[in-house]
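Table S2 (continued). Query chain:
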Amino acid sequence: MIYNTPVILPGAVPRNLPDPKKLARVFLLLFIAGAAIRFVDVFRPADGRVREAWRECDYAALARNFAREGMNILRPRIDWRGSGPGYAEMELPIIPWTMAVFYKVFGIHEAIGRALIWVVSLLTLLVFFALARRLLPPAGAAAAGLFFVLSPLSVRVSNALQPEGLMLLLIVSGVYCFIRWLEGDGWRFYWLSAAAIAGAILVKAPAAHIGILLAALLVRKKGWPALLRLETWAFGVLALLPAAAWYTYAHRLYLEYGLSLGLSNETHWLGWDLVRSPRALLSHMTGVARGEGIFVWTPIGAAFLAILLFFRKGNEIKAVVAWWLISIGIFFLAALRTVGDDWAVYYHVVAVPPAALTIGAVAGWLATRWRSSDLLRFERKVLVAGFLLVYGFLAVLVARDFHPRALEPLYRCARSFSASIPEGDLILVSGGPAKDPTGRPVAYNASYFFYWLDRRGWNIPSDAASLEAVREYARRGASFFIAEKSFLALNPGLEGELRAAFPAPAECPGAVLFRIVP
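Corresponding output:
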């Protein structure tokens, strides 16, 4: 029988942990290993060694602009602003704003932001270890901790200039404190949980899905009438009101300035048009399955979820994992247009904690039956081999993700173009498509050339590119056009028209620089 917490599930075995000092040493080693793995690449700048180029360069630009143009957190500014002030709709920019605070003291170094997020990842490790030890027996908690330490997505967001690392900390903290409150450990955990969930949603709006898990745990512990109690409604208000206020304000920035980091200028949600397009629907669903199956569960790990689901009814860890995954599944289904894209794999980091708890639950079950006649020698060998394959697969993915260099050729392009573009000149840069295959709007802005060149200007979408469109941007003030070769390949004939109409003072294997002054 899986280990249960004594208050959530009456009648469970008490927490008599064997050899607490030995267990503490195990988790200390896990923490050191997790910290060391996450420390790799902390000091890399936001150059060609970024992973999520558009996201990381946007956050780096936001921090730089706070430091240069004013520290008002209510006025986040991006670089692809055209000739305007650059105020953009986005999540609460607490990460770039905090980076800018340190920039004021130490100068502009992107490694400062990575170091801050690395510290956040260390706190996430500690909170998840506490959650695992509360829900699982010692062997299971250690197995869950190792899975979390080696999770490639958890490692990826641990030093990325993105909000997902902080969101993960706040989600895990909110769940842990909510369980502590349900167990009767004090009202301070109620307030801490509400604050953590509010912060998670402010940092990244999709974090709101965790409310489904919390509601399920509340009903499981206190019954359906608990949903009508004052403290339940107060929790909801405390968790949602700050986010509602911020995103309402941020949307006004979008309405006034027309700039957004993917909130109002992209359709994320499932719609009938997507349902009526079987090929597009299958593509997005396949993307979700690929992201979960490879980067979260691993191809073998999904089998452990099946084992957990066969545990007896009433098992607490089974309920926690099941409802956690249900809440994530509802979010993934609702936001299928986004989470099903290949580039959005980091959205799946929210599934890492329940996946780790699943591995830990099965490991705890195996440990309690290791010498039992109920478990055949063959079954033990199969399960141990499965654990080794899961951890080995995770370790390989983490190792392969170290030292990203995919954008270095384009970064070298930017460096070579810099001397040809006078400081202060506005530029036009090729972007992504403005519409998805079903015709819905997509955020097409690509930020990396702006950040690398330290210039301002516009992006032109790949599916609305033409010689006349480029000339229109020139009339609006753009002096140069940076066209990536992949962008030109999507528009046959455009490169020839551009070369005939404008001089190309610089070129590299990945892009062409055109001077487009009328």
